[in-house]
């Protein structure tokens, strides 16, 4: 059965196929993984296992083989002999298909009707994009369109929206889902959060092979995804017909007023963008280049008052958002990406519909009236500094204004500040990600950790205490010299409470002085998968305690997290760990892996451990190790890898890369 689209189709037929136990089989193909999983469950003692094979994209060799077979109509591709120029042309054509068998077959079918000459193939190569984008039933897009037409109605807009991103880009899943929510594509479903429903939508598109997974998180959820070029072309074509959005290369400048969503990928339209900013129908404006120029803000303010999504792209210089942003009262999504300073105006408090404010890692100034925006679901400003209210503004504001007002928050990433005073943090019951950086020391009191103890919905916790950050923001910017002695005090993270109630918390990053790690495993989150420690200055070997964490898969010990010279991964410890990272442990001289430790380790990274002059003892017993990455300039350590003999060491050399300052060695 080919191209099955529903489980009902299989169910209606399977009852007519009697099981005579003679070894006969039924082969079924589908783009929907759920159908494949349900179609033929294979009974195994203790559980049910689905028998299905998931096709992957072809590599270069497989693509070339399929191309030759289909173009020349042969079963043995080695019988095909091409001149060097023809082979070069053919491989360029195949490269356009990027491993998608369907696209290769379409192009090969086209070439099979042409003369096998250099001129003929050059002509096809020049127009290959056009050929791949023809929408007839026998063309690639025509066939792929069948997959799109089969999507349930609630997924169609979500799939098409993937076309707004530049070709070959890696799309952050969280951003994509937040955009879907802001655009109104996610339909409510009982008490589930819109974000959870959006994640289900994305997974369904992945199961249907409409979207590809680029990277997964340690908990198995999708971190980033991508869409094949041909499917992106399909999305853009269908979106244009449905007037859902336009990307820059498809804009019809003779009728700009019809565009509702506009995605700008390059600078080439900089001079032409202004006419679209007079378009009162525009609802979404997304830049993947530098932001719009200041002269264009007036047009937005006066004509595009219904804008709901504004992504200003990547910053290259300091940027002050104009006061006119406050006129866009329908705005739900506001994003500025980059690494420089961003200043938000006080008028930001008028954006009462704003759900998502994303400033990434920009050094940002945010007015304290941000707390008025009670619809905020994601406040992602890792180095965002909240201003302190003046006495005058306190008098003008009715009642207390603080973080506790934002009860819809799921993401909170900010620099430490006076907003941490009091117990407002504990009232954010829906919070899933908490990230606080900067000078944390003045706020790390019992009340702070009591508040975190109440945030049992947390998935991710990042606490980064840095006196260097406080020196930059307080002394250099404000000039309060009397604070110098306070700043120079040792930063620390005292009084950590038990995380035993945080059953959803799987990722914890802690940066700051810790006197010692808690010894009881009950202290740690019961489902902790990833732990990163930095600047902790632990004197006792942390491995003797962390060995007992039953679910830990990734352990990262970075910059001065441990100041001892010997580290031991003890017998039988770290059963689940797949990745171990040791970075900038200046005092570490020796790493010992005892027998039976780290049985499932697949990746070992040792970077800039300046005193480590020997390979880890017990390295050979790590039978599942797939990657060993070193960054060192110690000649003895490099020579040991190069010169030691033995079959097992040959295996280690095959998975080892050494990065020196002047070159990278890959064996």
Keywords:
667 residues, alpha/beta, three-stranded antiparallel beta sheet, 27% helix
Descriptive overview:
This protein has 667 residues and is α/β, with parallel strands linked by helices. It has 20 helices and 27 strands. A hairpin with a 4-residue loop joins strand 26 (656-659) and strand 27 (664-666). Helix 9 (153-161) crosses helix 12 (229-242) and helix 10 crosses helix 11. The longest helix is centred in the first third of the chain and has 14 residues, at 194-207.
Brief description of this entry?
By secondary structure, this protein is an alpha/beta fold.
Helix content: 25-40%
Number of helices: 20
Number of strands: 27
Residues in β-strands, percent: 15-25%
Which ranges are low-confidence, i.e. pLDDT below 50, for 5 or more consecutive residues?
A: 43-50, 470-491, 661-667
Shape: globular
- What would you report as the Rg, rounded to the nearest angstrom? 29 Å
Distance between the termini: 46 Å
Structural class: alpha/beta
The major β-sheet equals: 20 strands, mixed
Average pLDDT confidence is: 82
């Amino acid at each position: 059965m080919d191209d099955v689209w529903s489980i009902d189709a299989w169910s209606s037929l399977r009852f007519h196929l009697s099981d005579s136990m003679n070894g006969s089989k039924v082969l079924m193909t589908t783009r929907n993984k759920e159908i494949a999983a349900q179609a033929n469950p294979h009974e195994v003692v203790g559980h049910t296992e689905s028998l299905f094979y998931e096709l992957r994209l072809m590599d270069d060799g497989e693509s070339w083989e399929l191309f030759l077979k289909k173009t020349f109509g042969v079963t043995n591709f080695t019988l095909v002999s091409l001149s060097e120029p023809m082979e070069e042309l053919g491989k360029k054509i195949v490269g356009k298909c990027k491993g998608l068998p369907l696209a290769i077959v379409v192009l090969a079918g086209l070439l099979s009707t042409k003369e096998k000459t250099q001129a003929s193939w050059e002509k096809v190569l020049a127009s290959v994009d056009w050929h791949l984008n023809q929408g007839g039933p026998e063309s690639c897009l025509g066939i792929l369109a069948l997959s799109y037409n089969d999507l349930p109605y609630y997924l169609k807009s979500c799939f098409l929206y993937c076309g707004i991103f530049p070709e070959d880009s890696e799309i952050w899943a969280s951003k994509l889902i937040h955009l879907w929510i802001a655009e109104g594509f996610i339909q409510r479903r009982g008490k589930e959060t819109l974000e959870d429903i959006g994640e289900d939508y994305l997974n369904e598109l992945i199961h249907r092979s409409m979207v590809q997974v680029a990277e997964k998180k340690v908990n198995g959820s999708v971190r980033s995804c991508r869409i094949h070029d041909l499917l992106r072309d399909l999305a853009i074509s269908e979106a244009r017909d449905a007037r859902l959005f336009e990307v820059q290369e498809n804009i019809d400048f003779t009728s700009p007023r019809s565009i509702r969503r506009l995605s700008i990928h390059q600078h080439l339209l900089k001079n032409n963008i202004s006419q679209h900013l007079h378009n009162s129908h525009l609802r979404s404006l997304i830049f993947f280049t530098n932001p719009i120029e200041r002269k264009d803000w007036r047009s937005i303010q006066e004509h595009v008052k219904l804008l709901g999504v504004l992504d200003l792209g990547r910053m290259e210089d300091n940027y002050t958002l104009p006061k006119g942003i406050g006129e866009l009262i329908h705005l739900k999504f506001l994003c500025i990406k980059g690494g420089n300073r961003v200043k938000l105006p006080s008028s930001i408090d008028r954006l009462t519909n704003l759900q998502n404010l994303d400033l990434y890692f920009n050094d940002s100034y945010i007015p304290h009236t941000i707390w008025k925006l009670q619809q905020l679901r994601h406040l992602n400003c890792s180095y965002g500094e909240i201003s302190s209210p003046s006495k005058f503004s306190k008098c003008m504001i009715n009642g207390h204004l603080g973080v506790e007002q934002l009860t819809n928050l799921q993401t909170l990433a900010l620099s430490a500040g006076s907003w941490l005073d009091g117990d407002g943090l504990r009232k954010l019951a829906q919070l899933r990600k908490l990230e606080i950086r900067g000078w944390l020391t003045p706020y790390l009191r019992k009340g702070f950790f009591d508040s975190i103890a109440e945030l049992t919905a947390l998935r991710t916790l990042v606490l980064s205490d840095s006196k260097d950050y406080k020196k930059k923001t307080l002394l250099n910017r404000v000039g309060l010299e009397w604070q110098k002695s306070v700043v120079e005090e040792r930063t620390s993270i005292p009084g950590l409470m038990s995380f035993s109630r945080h059953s959803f918390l799987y990722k914890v990053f802690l940066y700051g002085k810790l006197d010692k790690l808690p010894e009881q495993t009950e202290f740690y989150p019961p489902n902790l998968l990833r732990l990163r420690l930095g600047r902790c200055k632990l004197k006792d070997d942390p491995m003797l305690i962390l060995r007992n964490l039953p679910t830990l898969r990734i352990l990262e010990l970075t910059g001065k997290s441990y100041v001892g010279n010997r580290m031991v991964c003890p017998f039988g410890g770290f059963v689940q760990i797949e990745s171990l990272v040791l970075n900038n442990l200046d005092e570490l001289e020796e790493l010992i892996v005892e027998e039976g430790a780290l049985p499932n380790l697949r990746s070992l990274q040792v970077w800039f451990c300046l005193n480590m002059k020997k390979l880890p003892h017990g390295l050979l017993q790590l039978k599942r190790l797939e990657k060993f990455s070193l960054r060192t300039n110690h000649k003895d350590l490099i020579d040991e890898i190069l010169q030691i003999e033995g079959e097992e060491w040959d295996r280690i050399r095959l998975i080892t890369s050494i990065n020196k300052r002047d070159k990278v060695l890959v064996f």
